[in-house]
Each structure stands twice: as C-alpha cells, then as structure tokens.
Write a structure and sequence with these properties.
alpha+beta, four-stranded antiparallel β-sheet, Nucleotide_cyclase, GAF-like_dom_sf, Alpha-Beta Plaits, six-stranded antiparallel β-sheet, Rev_trsase/Diguanyl_cyclase, diguanylate cyclase activity, Beta-Lactamase, single chain
Length: about 350
C-alpha cells in the first residue's frame, strides 16, 4: 500500500515548480556546484553513519539524482529513479519532511517499490525549497531499520536549508545572466532596427552616415578608394497613383532584394528616400563603380518588378579627400540628375 498523496497543486503552481526544478538542476551542475553537493552528501553519510545520502529533484516524470553516495545499481549509474520508486517524491507532495524508522513495518510504505525493490529500511528526507515551492529533498537512508536521533534530523534539516539557499543563489545568478543576455540581445536588435529601413530591410540614412564616417576615417589612415552610387526608381509616382501604395511598397521591396543580391559583401545598400537607394562601395574606383551601376540597372530593368515594368537611373561618384564627404553625395546626386535627364530626353525622342 502506498501513502495517500495530499491534494495536487494547481497546474500553474506545478508548472512554476517544474520550471524552478529545471533551473535548480542546471544551477546544481554549474561552475562546480555538483562537486559541492557531492561533498555535502558524502559528509552527511559519514556523520550519520548511513550507507546512502543524496540530493534529488522531482520532475513530472522522475526523480533526478543530483548528488549521491551509496545508491545500489542500476540507480547509481542511471542517476534517475521512477517516481514509483522514489521516497523523496513524498517530501515534495507532502511539503515537509518524511521520516521512517522502519519502512518495512510502516503500513503506508512497506509495499512501496523503494522498500520492496531497492531495499530501503530507514529513510529521512527534508525539503529543498525555492520560494514557495519544494523542488526535491536532501535525504539519508539505511538498508536496515534505524532510530534517527534529534541531532540526526536536525543535521539533515540544516543541510537541506544550506543546499536550498545555495541553489536559490545560483538560480538567481543564472536568471540574472539570462536576463542580461536577453537585454543585450534586445539592445542589439533595437540598435539594428534603428539603422534599418522597415519596409525593405536595407540600411537607412543613419546607418549610411555611420558607415561613411568609418570609411572616411579608414581612408585618412590608410588611403584607398570609396565610391557611392545613387539609384532612383523612374516614374515611381505613376506606379503609386495607378496601382496603389501597397503595390508601390512591393516594388520597392523587390528592387531592394535584387540590388542586395547583386552587390558585394563589403558593400552597403541603403534606402535614403522614398524611391531612392544608395550603395556605398569601399575599395572601389570610379570605373568599377560605374560597371556595377550598369549591372544594377539591368538587374532591375530586365525583368518586371512585382508585375510592373520598372527601370532605375543611377549616379556614381568617388570620394575626394580634398572636397569632403558632403561633396561625395552631391557629386553622385548631380550624376543621377544628369542620368535622369538623359533618360527623359531619350523617352521624349
């Protein structure tokens, strides 16, 4: 006959307890924590003069043995015990200590699998607590009946309290580290989002300014080339007016994807206006930049974009240290203006 369990906690409370168990198992094994627990259970077995002592946690399916001495096989190797064979589960379910002087004569436990199959004779287990939850037990056991003294039980109670405090501290540290990692990830993503165009995923003006400043600083130290190509979608207003802004957004998104797939890994694509993009080209002279600009025009214009025939105009310039960074954009913008004028005249012709 097995002991009658008290009423089970609600699903939310048990879910919280199981989450705390998971954290405690990790905390108990982290940074040599398992070695510390192993020393404590060995000390308990030695002081109490019992063959078995252990720290274990109770999950939904099994007892996880975190540290132990004297367990018989196969449990010593498996490091887990079915709940049907666990006496420590009664500590968790009863939310308090379980003390058995002679389990084989105890009507509530004499038919328990821990007694019949594992040979438990005497048992004393005290709760490992984390906040409001009992996660497991610090216990000692003998294969023969035993009279636990008050000092024996006080020692187990104190050791359980020590382990509970240590695990709570370790769990708290792990939670803080996890929170810090989440905060760092959130900060990184917010930083990235603040420098990214929401619609197209390309960089935005802020990112362009930062990257340009970095490139110029590098050029001042080491020399080299830096080019910029501005890209303007021809007659984009007509697409918005005829097909609507949703189609216009789809056109811009697909153009950005085609441009991104065409440029090199070191290059930076940015959306710098409603229908205007820029490509920063480090270590690129004017001839190479203009060659890439021709490829970009073709990659957009050779196939319909979101179902629409679309062309782009480009203007390319290179950085001149004597004329400054603002002049780079001005030169590229002037080249773009000239290219759009040429296209307009060609269309009129």
């Amino acid at each position: 006959m097995s002991p009658s369990p008290p009423p089970s906690p609600g699903p939310l409370a048990e879910a919280e307890r199981l989450a705390a168990v998971s954290g405690a198992v990790r905390a108990g094994a982290a940074d040599g924590g398992g070695d510390g627990l192993q020393r404590l259970v060995a000390m308990a077995a030695r002081v109490l003069d019992v063959p078995v002592a252990m720290v274990s946690f109770i999950t939904a399916e099994e007892e996880v043995i975190q540290a132990a001495v004297g367990l018989p096989e196969p449990w010593a190797s498996l490091r887990t015990t079915p709940l049907s064979h666990s006496l420590c589960v009664q500590v968790v379910r009863g939310d308090g200590p379980v003390v058995l002087f002679d389990a084989r004569q105890d009507p509530a436990y004499r038919e328990h699998a821990a007694v019949l199959e594992m040979g438990a004779g005497a048992y004393a287990g005290y709760p490992l607590r984390h906040g409001e939850h009992v996660l497991g037990a610090f216990c000692a056991a003998d294969f023969a009946p035993r009279s636990w003294s008050e000092d024996d039980l006080r020692l187990l109670e104190d050791l359980a309290a020590v382990v509970s405090t240590e695990l709570t501290l370790r769990t708290t540290v792990q939670e803080l580290e996890a929170s810090r990692a989440r905060l760092e990830d959130l900060t990184r993503r917010l930083h990235e989002q603040s420098r990214t165009d929401v619609l197209t995923g390309a960089a935005n003006r802020r990112r362009v300014r930062e990257v340009l400043a970095d490139h110029v600083a590098r050029l001042e130290r080491h020399g080299g080339d830096l080019a910029m190509t501005l890209i303007d979608v021809d007659s984009f207003k007509r697409i918005n007016d005829v097909a609507g802004h949703r189609t216009g957004d789809a056109v811009l998104t697909e153009i950005a994807a085609r441009l991104q797939d065409t440029i090199r890994r070191p290059d930076l694509l940015a959306r710098v206006g409603g229908d205007e993009f820029a490509v920063l080209l480090p270590d690129t002279d004017l001839a190479a930049a203009e060659h890439l600009a021709r490829r970009l025009r073709h990659v957009v214009g050779d196939e319909p974009v979101a179902g629409w025939p679309v062309t782009v105009s480009t203007g390319t310039a290179v950085y001149d240290p004597d004329r400054g960074l603002e002049q780079l954009y001005a030169d590229a913008d002037a080249a773009l203006y000239e290219a759009k004028g040429t296209r307009a005249r060609d269309d009129d012709g």
